[in-house]
Design a protein that fits this description.
Shape of chain A: globular
CATH topology of chain A: Cathepsin B, Chain A
CATH superfamily of chain A: Phytochelatin synthase, N-terminal domain
Low-confidence stretches of chain A: 1-21
Order of helices and strands of chain A: HEHHHHHHEHEEEEHEEE
Structural class of chain A: alpha+beta
Strand order of the largest sheet of chain A: 1-6-5-4-3-9-2
Domain Peptidase C83 (chains A, B): 15-238
Largest sheet of chain A: 7 strands, antiparallel
Protein name (chains A, B): glutathione gamma-glutamylcysteinyltransferase
Oligomer: homodimer
GO molecular function (chains A, B): glutathione gamma-glutamylcysteinyltransferase activity; metal ion binding
Number of domains of chain A: 1
Number of strands of chain A: 9
Bound molecules: calcium ion
Radius of gyration of chain A: 19 Å
Keywords (chains A, B): Cadmium, Metal-binding, Transferase
EC number (chains A, B): 2.3.2.15
């Protein structure tokens, strides 16, 4: 091999983009990795990113395969800064965790931790579990909203502080593996018409910018556990 | 009360900034909350934020009071995308956690999970624990660097991908409660001469923008466990 080609190859090896050596699953071309130059640019250009910092500083990984809804709830409850329970691991400090979120008797009346660990949760159950805390909860089924309504309701929320959006969608509709999933939405990028999902299964996928239409299609899918469509939940302080 | 005053008070109550109802401890005026308008502006204006997105999407909370170093290591190892161990809770997926990071026999030779749980770690131990993985580790003591050198080494790193900065500092020196602490640094803001610390004790403090000089003073403090000063560690893929 010529020294020049060898040198070019070495330079190439020194600058492998982090996307190529990631542990997570590959993304289909319709999805844009947040952890990329383009993904960063979209955040900088976004004019509907009021929820991004509050959510990103609470970002956490779902503790098991059924806990996407639980991790998403913990993120928004911590981001809303409502009174939180103690967590024994941190002595006097108070913070929602994927364990102590079930300490509230009203939450347990909706579903116990054991049941959620076995079967996850439907859109309605997500809304009911959230409503067991002193916040305002608005459940929206995919079947009830046009693309235009869906886009506008999310944008309105993403421009306001102290309220948040959680989406319940079918991954396979937007090119991911595979089933129903729940995560918070953190921002909207107008030029590309994309929403930023902070995917709580961080072992599996990075956060992605997804086309509004793809996400709307993915929430307008039937959940066999409920017989209804998936959708989104808006939460705010009361 | 006049209807006008009553209306003003109501509007006031509807727009309580999230800082005022946060669960975390209050910040002294020398520190700027990342979760604020000014904190967001600094990120947008930063020209040394290459590490911000890779670290922020791996942000996690230390699992107990002694695990600041462990949580910081987990964040940078996941951000470096080096081969990770399996975690039983996520079946086939691989990702560093504050538990499986100790599965590596070379890591255990430095310190076991039990010992770190009891006594935390010094700067040198942080470097040695990191070096038990296939990455390049550069340990820097606070006593060895001028403010100018400290600022420049961090800025150089924060402008490059695939390498990261961890700081070991005394909280009380920069106005926080209270002892030695470890967290990753995610960005630098030139106009205000501040670094962004993604504080892993998320139950206690939000991420903060701290003056370069304050952080330099806080790493140039003696750790009674080692008899040496605290400092910072630079890590990169080999
Ligand atoms: Ca509704
Ligand atoms: Ca909002
Ligand atoms: Ca050195
Ligand atoms: Ca870097």
């Amino acid at each position: 091999m010529s020294p020049l080609i060898s040198r070019i190859l070495m330079i190439g090896l020194c600058f492998i983009p982090s996307e190529l050596i990631a542990q997570t699953l590959p993304l289909t071309p319709n999805l844009i990795n947040f952890n990329s130059s383009e993904g960063e640019t979209f955040l900088i250009e976004s004019t509907a990113r009021q929820d991004y910092i509050p959510l990103s500083i609470q970002f956490e990984t779902q503790e098991n395969g059924a806990f996407c809804g639980v991790a998403s709830m913990v993120m928004v409850l911590n981001a809303l800064s409502i009174p939180a329970p103690k967590a024994p691991e941190w002595r006097k400090y108070k913070r929602f965790t994927q364990t102590n979120i079930f300490d509230n008797p009203k939450t347990q009346e909706v579903m116990t931790k054991d049941i959620v660990s076995k079967q996850g949760m439907t859109l309605q159950q997500l809304g009911q579990l959230l409503a067991s805390y002193p916040i305002k909860v608005d459940i929206n089924y995919g079947s009830e909203v046009t693309l235009k309504e869906f886009r506008q309701r999310l944008i309105d929320n993403l421009k306001q502080p102290n309220n948040f959006v959680l989406v319940n969608y079918l991954r396979s509709t937007m090119g991911q593996e595979k089933g129903g999933h729940i995560s918070p939405v953190a921002a909207y990028h107008q030029q590309s018409d994309r929403f930023l999902i902070l995917d709580v299964s961080r072992y599996k996928y990075p956060p992605v910018w997804v086309k509004a239409e793809d996400l709307w299609q993915a929430i307008n899918t039937k959940d066999s556990a409920s017989g209804k469509t998936r959708g989104f939940v808006l939460v705010s302080v009361e």
